[in-house]
């Protein structure tokens, strides 16, 4: 009797054309699943368990990351809420300057914060609110963007945060503010060059800049 040797492809084609074959031949299916090859490789059942274990581990990591991000966002939201209330309740430039000097720096883990305003009546003696005749500092860093996070040179740090002197580069988040008159720029800075990078989520600071713009528009009209 002539031996009929089927190729691997022919076997696969047959099984695909007859999906109930293995189900109707349960002993053969169990043998395939549970048989441990003699060369020491793992069985099909063991391979499936290994794959499920790896997927389960990966899923746990993703869930843990999502929970961590959610917790971080909740904390940032609470800080932003508290800061917004303080900003909204500011009735003068001095009160707004004090809020920037204390609460904003602490809540956003920043080293520096400044607001730069142009074409607005000058008010002297404020550490964190600076007034300019026509041009805002480092406008070229923003270009046509409304928000920019990047490392900045020492001389740029000094221009953005003139309250101090700088010998090394840092980083900053720069946010344009929509004002009824002139222009405005919110700057949040760090001594760490990688603190504010292009990958950072700016949703909360963008929201903060919008709230500040509303308060500044009110103060302008006083």
Rounded to the nearest angstrom, the radius of gyration is 31 Å
Q: What is the strand content?
A: 5-15%
Low-pLDDT runs: none
CATH fold field value of the domain at 91-220: Beta-Lactamase
Which CATH architecture of the domain at 91-220?
A: 2-Layer Sandwich
Kindly summarize this structure in a few lines.
The protein is of the alpha+beta class and 222 residues long. It is 50% helix and 15% strand.
Descriptors for this entry?
single chain, 222 residues, Beta-Lactamase, 5-stranded mixed beta sheet, 8 helices, 50% helix, elongated
SSE order and pairing:
Layout: H1 8-17, H2 21-24, H3 26-34, H4 44-88, H5 93-107, E1 112-118, E2 129-132, H6 139-142, E3 147-152, H7 154-160, E4 170-177, E5 183-190, H8 203-220
Parallel strand pairs: 1-2
Antiparallel strand pairs: 1-5, 3-4, 4-5
Helix pairs in contact: 4-5, 4-8
What would your notes on this structure say?
The chain has a five-stranded mixed sheet with strand order 2-1-5-4-3. It has 222 residues and is of the alpha+beta class. It is elongated and about 95 Å long. The protein has eight helices and five strands; from the N terminus they run αααααββαβαββα. The mean pLDDT is 80. The protein has a domain at 91-220: 2-Layer Sandwich (Beta-Lactamase).
């Amino acid at each position: 009797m002539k031996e009929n040797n089927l190729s691997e492809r022919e076997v696969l084609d047959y099984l695909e054309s007859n999906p109930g074959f293995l189900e109707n031949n349960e002993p053969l299916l169990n043998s395939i699943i549970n048989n441990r090859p003699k060369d020491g490789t793992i069985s099909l059942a063991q391979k499936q368990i290994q794959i499920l274990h790896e997927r389960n581990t990966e899923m746990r990591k993703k869930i843990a990351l999502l929970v961590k991000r959610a917790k971080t966002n909740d904390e940032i939201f609470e800080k932003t809420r508290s800061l917004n209330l303080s900003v909204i309740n500011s009735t003068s430039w001095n009160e707004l300057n004090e809020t920037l000097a204390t609460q904003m720096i602490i809540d956003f883990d920043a080293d520096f914060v400044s607001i730069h305003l142009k074409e607005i009546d000058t008010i002297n003696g404020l550490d964190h609110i600076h007034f300019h005749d026509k041009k805002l500092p480092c406008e070229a860093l923003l270009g046509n963007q409304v928000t920019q996070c990047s490392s900045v040179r020492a001389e740029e740090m000094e221009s953005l945060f003139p309250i101090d002197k700088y010998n090394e580069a840092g980083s900053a988040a720069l946010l344009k503010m929509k004002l009824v008159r002139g222009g405005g720029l919110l700057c949040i800075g760090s001594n760490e060059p990688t603190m504010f990078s292009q990958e950072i989520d700016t949703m909360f600071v963008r929201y903060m800049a919008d709230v500040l713009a509303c308060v500044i528009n009110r103060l302008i009209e006083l």
